[in-house]
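Researcher: Structure for this, please.
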Amino acid sequence: MRSALSVGWRILRAFIIIYLCLYAGTVVSTLLPVAIPGSIIGMLILFTLLALQLLPVDWVKPGSTLLIRYMGLLFVPISVGIMSYTDILSAQFGPIVVSVVVSTFVVLVTVGLASHKLHSRVPSPPPGATDE
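Model: Predicted structure, C-alpha coordinate format:
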Protein backbone atom coordinates (compact mmCIF):
# COMPACT_ATOMS: atom_id res chain seq x y z
CA MET A 1 0.00 0.00 0.00
CA ARG A 2 2.81 2.38 0.91
CA SER A 3 4.52 1.72 -2.40
CA ALA A 4 1.35 2.49 -4.37
CA LEU A 5 0.94 5.78 -2.50
CA SER A 6 4.57 6.66 -3.16
CA VAL A 7 4.21 5.97 -6.90
CA GLY A 8 0.94 7.91 -6.97
CA TRP A 9 2.54 10.87 -5.23
CA ARG A 10 5.49 10.88 -7.67
CA ILE A 11 3.18 10.87 -10.68
CA LEU A 12 0.98 13.58 -9.15
CA ARG A 13 4.02 15.72 -8.35
CA ALA A 14 5.29 15.31 -11.92
CA PHE A 15 1.95 16.37 -13.41
CA ILE A 16 1.72 19.35 -11.07
CA ILE A 17 5.17 20.52 -12.17
CA ILE A 18 4.37 19.99 -15.86
CA TYR A 19 1.07 21.85 -15.58
CA LEU A 20 2.64 24.69 -13.59
CA CYS A 21 5.18 25.15 -16.38
CA LEU A 22 2.34 25.04 -18.91
CA TYR A 23 0.34 27.69 -17.05
CA ALA A 24 3.43 29.86 -16.56
CA GLY A 25 4.06 29.60 -20.31
CA THR A 26 0.46 30.60 -21.00
CA VAL A 27 0.77 33.64 -18.75
CA VAL A 28 4.06 34.67 -20.38
CA SER A 29 2.48 34.12 -23.83
CA THR A 30 -0.34 36.55 -23.06
CA LEU A 31 2.18 39.18 -21.96
CA LEU A 32 4.36 38.91 -25.06
CA PRO A 33 3.59 41.06 -28.12
CA VAL A 34 4.57 38.10 -30.36
CA ALA A 35 2.14 35.21 -30.92
CA ILE A 36 4.01 32.24 -29.42
CA PRO A 37 1.89 29.41 -28.01
CA GLY A 38 1.93 29.12 -24.24
CA SER A 39 2.64 25.41 -24.44
CA ILE A 40 5.89 26.09 -26.31
CA ILE A 41 6.97 28.69 -23.77
CA GLY A 42 5.99 26.26 -20.98
CA MET A 43 8.20 23.56 -22.50
CA LEU A 44 11.05 26.08 -22.70
CA ILE A 45 10.53 26.98 -19.04
CA LEU A 46 10.56 23.29 -18.08
CA PHE A 47 13.66 22.70 -20.22
CA THR A 48 15.42 25.67 -18.61
CA LEU A 49 14.59 24.45 -15.10
CA LEU A 50 15.90 20.97 -15.93
CA ALA A 51 18.98 22.21 -17.81
CA LEU A 52 20.01 24.53 -14.98
CA GLN A 53 19.35 21.68 -12.54
CA LEU A 54 16.95 23.82 -10.54
CA LEU A 55 14.47 20.97 -10.84
CA PRO A 56 15.51 17.33 -10.38
CA VAL A 57 14.79 15.13 -13.39
CA ASP A 58 13.43 12.43 -11.09
CA TRP A 59 10.57 14.75 -10.14
CA VAL A 60 9.33 15.07 -13.72
CA LYS A 61 10.22 11.65 -15.13
CA PRO A 62 7.20 9.61 -13.90
CA GLY A 63 4.66 11.99 -15.43
CA SER A 64 6.56 12.53 -18.67
CA THR A 65 7.05 8.78 -19.11
CA LEU A 66 3.32 8.25 -18.68
CA LEU A 67 2.48 10.99 -21.20
CA ILE A 68 4.96 9.63 -23.75
CA ARG A 69 3.63 6.10 -23.32
CA TYR A 70 0.12 7.22 -24.30
CA MET A 71 1.11 9.92 -26.81
CA GLY A 72 -0.46 8.08 -29.75
CA LEU A 73 -3.78 7.92 -27.94
CA LEU A 74 -3.60 11.64 -27.15
CA PHE A 75 -3.28 12.47 -30.87
CA VAL A 76 -6.49 10.62 -31.85
CA PRO A 77 -8.92 13.50 -31.10
CA ILE A 78 -6.90 16.03 -33.09
CA SER A 79 -6.53 13.60 -35.98
CA VAL A 80 -10.29 13.08 -36.08
CA GLY A 81 -10.76 16.86 -35.92
CA ILE A 82 -8.55 17.33 -38.98
CA MET A 83 -10.89 15.06 -40.94
CA SER A 84 -13.54 17.80 -40.90
CA TYR A 85 -11.15 20.09 -42.84
CA THR A 86 -10.40 17.75 -45.75
CA ASP A 87 -11.81 20.23 -48.28
CA ILE A 88 -9.42 22.97 -47.14
CA LEU A 89 -6.49 20.55 -46.95
CA SER A 90 -7.13 19.19 -50.43
CA ALA A 91 -7.45 22.72 -51.85
CA GLN A 92 -4.12 23.70 -50.26
CA PHE A 93 -2.34 20.38 -50.87
CA GLY A 94 0.39 21.84 -53.09
CA PRO A 95 1.54 24.61 -50.71
CA ILE A 96 1.40 22.22 -47.76
CA VAL A 97 3.59 19.63 -49.49
CA VAL A 98 6.05 22.28 -50.69
CA SER A 99 6.37 23.81 -47.22
CA VAL A 100 6.87 20.40 -45.60
CA VAL A 101 9.54 19.38 -48.12
CA VAL A 102 11.38 22.73 -47.96
CA SER A 103 11.29 22.93 -44.16
CA THR A 104 12.50 19.32 -43.87
CA PHE A 105 15.36 20.06 -46.25
CA VAL A 106 16.30 23.22 -44.32
CA VAL A 107 16.34 21.30 -41.03
CA LEU A 108 18.44 18.47 -42.52
CA VAL A 109 20.98 20.90 -43.98
CA THR A 110 21.17 22.95 -40.78
CA VAL A 111 21.65 19.90 -38.56
CA GLY A 112 24.20 18.44 -41.00
CA LEU A 113 26.26 21.62 -41.13
CA ALA A 114 26.11 22.11 -37.36
CA SER A 115 27.10 18.49 -36.77
CA HIS A 116 29.94 18.73 -39.26
CA LYS A 117 31.21 21.92 -37.61
CA LEU A 118 31.02 20.44 -34.12
CA HIS A 119 32.66 17.14 -35.02
CA SER A 120 35.45 18.59 -37.13
CA ARG A 121 36.97 20.60 -34.29
CA VAL A 122 40.46 19.60 -33.29
CA PRO A 123 40.58 19.03 -29.54
CA SER A 124 42.87 21.42 -27.76
CA PRO A 125 45.63 19.95 -25.59
CA PRO A 126 45.00 19.99 -21.85
CA PRO A 127 46.55 22.89 -19.93
CA GLY A 128 50.11 22.21 -18.91
CA ALA A 129 50.76 19.69 -21.68
CA THR A 130 54.05 20.15 -23.48
CA ASP A 131 54.85 19.43 -27.10
CA GLU A 132 57.61 16.89 -27.42
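Researcher: Any notable elements?
Model: The radius of gyration is 22 Å. Residues 90-120 form one domain.
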